[in-house]
Specification:
about 270 residues; alpha+beta; Alpha-Beta Plaits; 9 helices
């Protein structure tokens, strides 16, 4: 069996993350962030086993046209067409992120539910019971099966009303960072496993809580210098400059939130110590 090769179309930060995961899996990957016509997709797909695209960049009509020309693309046009029939609502405050992945052999996996609030994410959702969490995760996996999903997506729902759907993200989720260091298998690795039809990995959380935050600085600021203070102050912090995120995991949620907020404030220049 020859080693698969993936043609990936997504945002530049997503290319960096997926290229690293593909390298670890021993799979070659060719990346682009440009919108393409069906003809362009055919050319891009040369020597690739299949294409894995972000529907926000490559639109549904183009995906359908490329499929008719014999190109295998994930997510498929049939899956996307079914999703378009589902009613969505605008974001009105805090919201929840639920990851799910499904392989061609119908193996399913989901992760703990994440709360996204004010430039922060908390996993799992604080205060939720195991029963309700399991119900939400099962409903998302049922949806993935109904859609005949191959790959993974992030489903977003209103934090105040779990039944109010906000939308979907495919290749690059809103909850960008937590699964990379807080889960046995990250969303990105699992997404590749699913489209490659490999056995899916464990989605167990590494600690009781994982908290991440966005990092914001001025264009002219030195992004490297804050590390000297922040890493010395708390060696448990994890940084990813490619997606401008910081994270930490542990048992004490209040402590974790304090550390992430301090990091954000220091990194942005809001505080100096």
């Amino acid at each position: 069996m020859s080693t698969p090769s993936i043609g990936l179309i997504t945002q530049e930060w997503g290319q960096i993350v997926y290229a690293e995961q593909a390298r670890k899996l021993g799979v070659s990957i060719k990346c682009s962030s440009q919108p393409m016509s069906a003809t362009d997709l055919v050319k891009f797909a040369e020597d690739q086993s299949f294409l894995f695209v972000d529907p926000r960049i490559v639109k549904l009509p183009t995906i359908k046209s490329a499929e008719k020309l014999g190109i295998t693309i994930y997510p498929t046009s049939k899956t996307l067409e079914q999703l378009e029939k589902i009613e969505t609502f605008p974001i009105s405050g805090d919201y929840l992120s639920i990851f799910v992945a499904r392989s061609a052999h119908a193996q399913l996996s989901s992760w703990p539910i994440t709360l996204i609030s004010n430039q922060l994410s908390i996993t799992p959702l604080p205060g939720i019971t195991d029963e309700i969490s399991a119900q939400i995760q099962q409903s998302v996996m049922n949806l993935a099966a109904e859609l005949n999903l191959i790959g993974g997506f992030e489903l977003l729902v209103d934090a105040a009303d779990y039944k109010k759907l906000i939308g979907f993200n495919w290749v690059t989720p809103d909850a960008k960072y937590w699964s990379q260091f807080g889960s046995v298998t990250s969303f990105y690795e699992q997404n590749l496993r699913a489209v490659l039809d490999l056995p899916l990995g464990s989605t167990k959380i590494a600690e009781r809580f994982v908290v991440t935050g966005n990092l914001e600085t001025d264009k002219d600021s030195d992004d490297y210098r804050p590390y000297l203070h922040l890493m010395a102050r708390n060696p448990s912090l994890k940084f990813d400059q490619s997606i401008k995120q910081v994270g930490i995991a542990g048992d004490d949620l209040e402590y974790l939130l304090t550390e992430i907020i301090h990091t954000q404030d220091y990194y942005s220049g809001k505080i100096e110590e």
